[in-house]
Amino acid sequence: MHVPPLFTPLPLAIDPVAFNYWPIVLLLTIAVGFAVLVMIGTHILGPQRTGPEKETTYESGVNPVDTARKRFNVRYYLLAMTFLVFDVEIIFLYPWATTFRQIDADSQLATMFVCRILFFLLTSVIAYAYAWRKGVFRFD
Amino acid sequence: MTITAQALVSIIVIAVVFNVSLGAVAYCILLERKICAWVQDRIGPNRVGPMGLFQPLADGLKLFLKEDYNPGHVDKWLFLLAPCFVIVPALVGWAIVPWGGVWDFQGFIFWEWIPFIGGTEVVAGPVNVSAVSVSIGLVYVLAVGGVGVYGVTLGGWASNNKYSFLGGVRATAQMLSYEIPIGVILLVILLMAGTLRPDVIVQHQVETMWNIVAHPLAAVIYFTAILAEANRAPFDLAEAEQELIGGFHTEYASMKWALFFFAEYSHMITASAIFAVIFLGGWHVFPFVPQAEVSGLFGVLLKFAILAGKVALLIVFMMVVRWTLPRFRYDQLMNLAWKILIPISGLLLVGTTLMTWKGLDQWWWMLALNIAIFIAVWGIQPFVPKGDPTNRKLPLEGSRFSPAE
Amino acid sequence: MATTERETEFIVPRATDFDGQTSGIGPHGLVPEEQSAMSGVELEDVETEEMLINMGPQHPATHGVLRVVLRTDGELVLEAVPHLGYLHRCAEKIGENLAYAMYVPYTDRMDYVAGMNENWAFCQAVEQLAGIQVPRRAEFLRVIAGELQRIASHLVSFGTYGLDLGAFTPFLYAFREREYILDLFEMLCGARLTYSYYTIGGLTHDATDDWLMKVGEFLAYFEPKIKEYNALLSYNRIFTKRAGGVGVLPADLAIAYGCTGPVIRGSGVPYDLRRDKPYSLYPELDFEVCVGTGEFGQVGDCWDRYMVRMKEMEQSVRIIQQCLKMIPDNAEGANGHRVKVRRNFKVDPGEVYLEMENPRGVLGFYIESQGGAQPYRVKARAGTFCNLSVLPELCHNVMLADVPAIIGSIDVVMGQVDR
Question: What is the ipTM of this complex?
């Protein structure tokens, strides 16, 4: 007689390649554990004496004026956006750079690859020139 | 029950390197102070223990016993999260570093009397002596480096302090900007080696030539960028004491502050290890000289020692740099990244691509490429339009000194 | 977040934009009424806000308790307003209640980095008022001690300037050499910081020949060090980029603000009282007046002001070497280093204003006597006060990191600014 199992195991479809990453998970756990333990430890060990003066923001010894949470200058945002563009482009290039050597250099495929990559880099050069023109790289 | 040799080695490497790196971080701080003292003609810490050797322990104890102080005006959860976000990437960044190369592991069975793992069979096979042996390799470096930015940003934002805020924003801009040259230089190295696996990159260097000889310009750019990534002088703008008190960690105290401090040194170790792996030939002792392969556990330890020696030398170099150079200004730092390092590394990438395509991928051709790019950049430097060298003093209405025209 | 009304009134610089237009980006969020008045404006929704940053009084880079309020837009400093008075000790008022000789130790506390020169200026002013002639050997010793103090003071300035730009090491080198000078001073008068070595009518102690020899040894040791420091810091590329072309002080502006000392000489004006209004033995001595050259930017930038100090140290070495050769023996008697002056001597009614070239600029003492043992009024014209007043002019549209560079190049000592 077929007895249905008490529970069905979860379909743990872990890709065997992805499973190779378990040491990173272990390392992450240890690192997070270290950070948390240290913070809890110092919280327990240290004294706790607070006061109104101590609670205020440090502002070179005078009463703080104004808040730090302001709409600050936009050029930091521009920089971050430009960074995103370039960083994503770089990541796109990684598979190509890894496999490029495996292609026979004389083949048409290699020529095509190089041309494509150079075109791709050209687009980022255009983006770079545009950003420069727009003053993203003016920091003063 | 059987486990693979790689699993066992991974666990051992994690256990060993994690603890070694924590100890190394503590002693890096002592080393930094000693080197600083040596540079500055002082004695340095010498009170706690012989030659001040217990100083890190005393410092750690002191920091643990200090008040864990959360100011009332901060965003509490982000404030607590920030040190974790800084320390965790710094501590996991070295996972892909091939400390001991490939080890042809002899299988064995654990003795029966060992609890839990007794009788487990360890399957023989070649293993990578690194914490994790995965094919993405260097992409992991980039990924972890990207996470490192969050902690600094969060710390600056959560502190609700103007100095912290500016420091956090500065650090974010700086670390973001210097990630691009790092990414591009890694691409150049990938093109040379044709793989992302760091151990294969080392093997490639052992067989041909160290990348620092083949790509000196790339090595200089990469080293500059890792200094900036680790917030080390002369790029320590995020915590520029003269401008921003303590920068993003102004409001932090006790071990929460120490985690930021720890992370900086941890970053140095990780970054130096990766630099040693991709540019200094990993466990290869001398360039130009072929090296006999030592097999077995002794070989692994030897390789680890050589790599650790290179890391130590790089760290000492970073420290000497710190105590020698003045700090950059924010705009100079960003100009260095966006207008100098990124274009040059882009040129290097294009040049390496074309030369690899044409089959000129021997190290001397690459060296020639680097020299050519260096000369070209140096040559066109006088013709590049320069900005106004003075600070732009805006004209003042009705001023005798700087009248509005 | 205690934004009291008083605090707000006190520090908020009014936002008139420097290009002459009203920017509309005033310091919102400061005054509640203003904020509510602006809340309907749509433009405000997209504008970035300016941030007021306090640098000081408890700040690592403001050389004491200077407080500078910066109005910043991102990294750009739009306006810097110095606030003084955190070290005010009524030094001038105290002078009205003390006998002349008793006031000398108070002058030490003004510019505590260059105490000798402060003593000297006050003593010479009193001597001029009372008509006292100082022995020649004492004059030589005064010049030697004064120039040694100038070297020590410029060393501090050099070291802290490196510190301001993030180079820590030159600071300790500078203090190592300064320590040598302080040891010499200790041998001379027993004190290391506040000497009161000059007294009315001469000096408190005579120098031994041994001491003079030690000064010679120090100069031989120190002279090559200046070149070393120039190689280490002055011509460092990062340093020249940080200091060159930053905080340019045009000559006319420097003159208009009454800047003196290395600040005005850095702007290319060869104004040095030791040569232009000679006192003591300076007419007999051979030295150059160093001016800024604009080697790394424009004449009058931070690098020039810094470099003037480095060059002046060489000149001071030259001056002391000449003095060591020319100094007369203590043959005239035991008290060749001073003339006898009664402790509570009375001065005839009159007034005197005497200026002297101090390391940080001209220090002038105005002393008015109405007869009696105490002055009626003592006023010190502090060089650093006038030099500091030029700070808001220099801090228009500079980077945040330039502000410490500019303050450091002006080289303020708050003790002298506030007195």
Answer: 0.81
